[in-house]
Design goal:
alpha/beta; Rossmann fold; 43% helix; binds adenosine-5'-diphosphate; binds magnesium ion; ATP-dependent RNA helicase DbpA
Length: 213
C-alpha cells in the first residue's frame, strides 16, 4: 500500500506532534499521494472516495503555508453543504491546535448575514463555506479574497451537481491568479474537466480507489 508516516514530510515538530496527538501516524493513501504534491506548491486534482482522509490532505497543506501573524484570508475551502463545511472547519481547528490564534470561520447559507459580516470584520485566516453564500458576500463587498493563496474545492462533483458551477467560477475569478488550487472529488466531472484550465494551472492528477487498495 502506498503510504508512509507523516514524519517523512517536511513539517514542523509542533505540527507532527499535533498530528500524533490526534492519532494520525501513517498517512492514508490519498494523503501519501497528495501531500508531497501540495507541499511542493502544485495544483492538484484528486479523486478519492468518502472517508479517505481528504480533509487532512488539504488541511495540512493550508496550515503549513499559513502565516498566523497576517490577518487576511489566506485559504478558502468551498464545500457543497453547510453540514460538510462545519465538519471541515472542525477538522481544520483540530489540525491547527499547535498554532496560536488561527481564526477559521464558516460562511454558509441558511444562517444570518450579520454575524458572518461581523466575524469577517474581525479578520480570519481561513474561510470554509458554501459557494452561494460566498458569492453573496463578494457581491456585497463584505469578503476580500485578494489575499488568498490556497483555494480548495471539496466534493467538487457534488457542488457542480447542485448547480454551483457559476458561483465557483465567480469566486475563483475574485481570487488572485497566482494561487494554489486543489480540487477534490469522488468523480471527475466533465464540466470541470472541460474547463479545468480556467480553474487550475498544470494540475497534478491523482486517483485513489479506496483506503484499502
Ligand atoms: P473524506 O473527506 O475523504 O471523506 P475525512 O477527511 O472526513 O475523509 O476523514 C475521514 C476520517 O479519517 C476522519 O474521521 C479523520 O479524522 C480520519 N483520518 C484522516 N486522516 C487520518 C490518518 N492519517 N490517520 C488516521 N485517521 C485519519
Ligand atoms: Mg471530505
Amino acid at each position: 500500500m502506498n503510504t508512509a508516516p507523516f514524519s517523512s514530510l517536511a513539517l514542523s515538530d509542533a505540527f507532527l506532534g499535533n498530528l500524533d496527538s490526534l492519532g494520525y501516524h501513517q498517512m492514508t493513501p490519498i494523503q501519501a499521494q497528495a501531500l508531497p504534491v501540495i507541499l511542493d506548491g502544485h495544483d492538484l486534482i484528486a479523486q478519492a472516495k468518502t472517508g479517505s482522509g481528504k480533509t487532512a490532505a488539504f488541511g495540512i497543506g493550508i496550515l503549513n503555508a499559513l502565516n498566523p501573524r497576517f490577518f487576511g484570508i489566506q485559504a478558502l475551502v468551498l464545500c457543497p453543504t453547510r453540514e460538510l463545511a462545519d465538519q471541515v472547519a472542525k477538522e481544520l481547528r483540530r489540525l491547527a491546535r499547535h498554532i496560536d490564534n488561527v481564526k477559521i470561520i464558516t460562511l454558509c447559507g441558511g444562517t444570518p448575514m450579520g454575524p458572518q459580516i461581523g466575524s469577517l470584520e474581525h479578520g480570519a485566516h481561513i474561510v470554509v463555506g458554501t459557494p452561494g453564500r460566498i458569492r453573496d458576500h463578494l457581491g456585497r463587498g463584505t469578503v476580500d479574497l485578494s489575499t488568498i493563496s490556497t483555494l480548495v474545492l471539496d466534493e467538487a462533483d457534488r457542488m457542480v451537481d447542485m448547480g454551483f458551477y457559476e458561483d465557483i467560477m465567480g469566486i475563483a475569478s475574485a481570487c488572485p491568479k497566482k494561487r494554489q488550487t486543489l480540487l477534490f472529488s469522488a468523480t471527475y466531472p466533465d464540466t470541470i474537466r472541460k474547463e479545468s484550465a480556467r480553474l487550475l494551472r498544470l494540475p497534478v492528477e491523482i486517483k485513489v480507489e479506496s483506503l484499502h487498495d
